[in-house]
Amino acid sequence: MVSTAERSRAAPGGAAPAPILNVSGLGRRFGAFVAVKGVDIRVEEGSIHALIGPNGAGKTTVFSMLSGFLKPTEGRIEYRGTDITGAGPTQVARRGMIRSFQISATFAHLSVHENVRVALQRKAGLAYQFWSPESRLDRLDARVAELLAEVGLAAERDTLAVNLSYGRKRMLEIATTLAVDPDLLLLDEPMAGMAHEDVERVVELIRRISDGRTILMVEHNLSVVRNLCDRITVLQRGEVIAEGSYAQVSANPQVREAYIGTEA
Ligand SMILES: Nc1ncnc2c1ncn2[C@@H]1O[C@H](COP(=O)(O)OP(=O)(O)OP(=O)(O)O)[C@@H](O)[C@H]1O
């Protein structure tokens, strides 16, 4: 597999690299109701990109279309230059674009270690190979240990998922998502419902796991977006009203009025 760094190096001398995800004119109607209209999003490889907007703006609908759970009624989704519009969730995931909840449903009565192991087995297609040679299972265990260390859950390896704090459960979800080795990770409100100290821990975690990966996240917490994200697309009533850095979008009067208000 070609690494992110190699791909970036492959970009012709000085030219802007092609985006990993290029969404153009994306639209979705539910009967007569237009939930998403003419949405363009260009996600650069290696970036952390946020999709923000008030309740009902269409963020979840866009994520569902990107991850193949919902078919667009208009527009085009290109992943690494290939048209994937209308592809199903499994096809999209196989290409390397993974939505966190897609494989992050954790099993409450399995331990942290077992949950990550199941995710790895699923990826390796080992799930039904109970006769796997020990060496193969040892390799899996080594990778589980690496992933738990990466998300800071090594000390909780034997804790049942059900007994984890809310924040730590989200970290376990991220570990099971990373087990599938995504190139582009779609994170759906990763900080939702978290206590302040967990938010900081997950911000650090996302920053760490973004090394060599691209992240597109829906996030309501604007201080998280400001600290973490390279680019931001703002949706309102299904349409993009601004796109750029935090400084750029927060200076946009339409965004201030629609969303950021006095926090900008
Ligand atoms: N299956 C559906 N059928 C009809 N309308 C829908 C459907 N799914 C979403 N909508 C409508 O589309 C609009 C966008 O919804 P969506 O959930 O994408 O917004 P959102 O930005 O994710 O909101 P929130 O921040 O509250 O999660 C809303 O008005 C919603 O009621």
Can you offer a commentary on this structure?
It is a single chain. Helix 5 packs across helix 6, helix 6 crosses helix 7 and helix 7 packs parallel to helix 8. This protein is α/β, with parallel strands linked by helices and 264 residues long. The protein is 40% helix and 22% strand. It is globular, with a radius of gyration of 19 Å. The protein contains 11 helices and 10 strands. It has a 6-stranded mixed β-sheet, sandwiched between helices. It has a 4-stranded antiparallel β-sheet with strand order 2-1-4-5, with helices on one face. The chain has 2 domains: 1-96 and 182-264, Rossmann fold; 105-181, no CATH class. Bound molecules: adenosine-5'-triphosphate (ATP). Adenosine-5'-triphosphate binds at residues 30, 33, 35, 53, 55-61.
Helices, strands, pairings?
Blueprint: H1 4-9, E1 21-30, E2 33-43, E3 48-52, H2 59-66, E4 74-79, E5 82-83, H3 89-95, E6 97-99, H4 100-104, H5 112-124, H6 134-151, H7 166-178, E7 184-188, H8 196-209, E8 214-218, H9 222-228, E9 231-236, E10 239-244, H10 246-251, H11 253-260
Parallel strand pairs: 3-8, 3-9, 6-7, 7-8
Antiparallel strand pairs: 1-2, 1-4, 4-5, 9-10
Helix pairs in contact: 5-6, 5-7, 6-7, 7-8
The protein binds adenosine-5'-triphosphate.
Adenosine-5'-triphosphate binds next to β2 and α2.
